[in-house]
Specification:
Strand order of the largest sheet: 3-2-1-4-5-7-6
Order of helices and strands: HHHEHEHEEHEHHHEE
CATH class: Alpha Beta
CATH topology: Rossmann fold
Structural class: alpha/beta
Largest sheet: 7 strands, mixed
Number of strands: 7
Shape: globular
C-alpha cells in the first residue's frame, strides 16, 4: 500500500482537497475494517438512523456525498430508497461495494442538475471538505424543495468525564489502531481534523443561510457522534 503524507499544519483550500484525496486513496483497501473496529460497529447503527431520519417515501432518489465504499448507499437501498454515490477519491470508488451508480466528483461542485434529488446524506466528511458554506449551498441546489438531508459527523460528549475518555480514545487509540491496520499518517490526521468543524450554532446558521429549515442536531452514543438533519426550504430565505 502506498504511503501517505499529511502536512504538519492542517491544510486549507486546494491543498486540503489534494491531501484528502490522497489520504482516502491510501486507506481505501481497509477503510471498512478499520471503521468497524474503531467504532465497535456502532457506525452501522448510526448510518441506519441517518437514513431513517430522512423520512422520505420509498423510491426517493438520495445522493450520498463522500460515499466512500458505499456503506450509506447500501443502507439507503435497504430502506427502499434509490442512492447515487459521489466521492472525490477514485481509490474509494474502486473499493466500493454497492450496486448504486457512482460518480467521481467534488461535493462542492456536484455533477447533478438543480433540484433533481429528494434527499442527501453525508457520513463523516464535513471536516474533510474545503469549506462548509459552499457545500451547504450545493446541497440546496441539488435537493428539491421539501427534500431532506442527513449529515453524520464525529462529536464530543457533553459529559466532562466521557469527553475526557473519548479524547484519549480518539486521540491515542484510534491512530494506533489505524496505524496497525492501514496508513498511520491518515489516522493521525483523523483526530486533528475535528478542528475544522464549526460550533453547532454556526453550522445551523450556515445551513439556514443556504436554504434549509427545521435544522436539528441529535447526539448519538452518548455524544461521540452527531446527526444533523434539515429540510430544503421552498425559498432560500425561509
Amino acid at each position: 500500500m502506498a504511503g501517505f503524507t499529511m502536512p504538519e499544519q492542517l491544510p486549507e483550500g486546494e491543498e486540503k482537497v489534494a491531501a484528502v484525496r490522497g489520504m482516502f486513496d491510501a486507506i481505501a483497501p481497509r477503510y471498512d475494517l478499520v471503521n468497524r473496529i474503531m467504532t465497535f460497529r456502532m457506525d452501522v447503527a448510526w448510518r441506519r438512523r441517518s437514513v431513517r431520519e430522512l423520512a422520505l417515501p420509498a423510491g426517493s432518489t438520495v445522493v450520498d456525498l463522500a460515499c466512500g465504499t458505499g456503506d450509506l448507499c447500501r443502507e439507503l437501498s435497504a430502506q427502499g430508497l434509490r442512492p447515487i454515490g459521489v466521492d472525490l477519491s477514485f481509490g474509494m470508488l474502486a473499493a466500493a461495494r454497492t450496486a448504486a451508480p457512482l460518480l467521481q466528483g467534488d461535493a462542492l461542485s456536484m455533477p447533478l442538475p438543480d433540484g433533481t434529488v429528494d434527499g442527501a446524506t453525508c457520513g463523516f466528511a464535513l471536516r474533510n471538505l474545503a469549506s462548509l458554506p459552499p457545500f451547504f449551498a450545493e446541497l440546496a441546489r441539488v435537493v428539491r424543495p421539501g427534500g431532506r438531508i442527513a449529515l453524520l459527523e464525529v462529536a464530543e460528549p457533553p459529559n466532562a468525564v466521557l469527553r475526557f475518555g473519548h479524547g484519549i480514545y480518539f486521540g491515542k487509540v484510534v491512530p494506533f489502531i489505524g496505524g496497525l491496520l492501514s496508513d498511520p499518517a491518515a489516522y493521525r490526521y483523523l483526530p486533528r481534523s475535528v478542528a475544522y468543524l464549526p460550533e453547532p450554532d454556526e453550522m445551523f446558521e450556515q445551513l439556514r443561510a443556504a436554504g434549509f429549515a427545521d435544522v436539528q442536531r441529535t447526539l448519538l452514543s452518548v455524544g461521540i457522534s452527531q446527526l444533523i438533519t434539515a429540510t430544503r426550504a421552498a425559498d432560500p430565505g425561509a
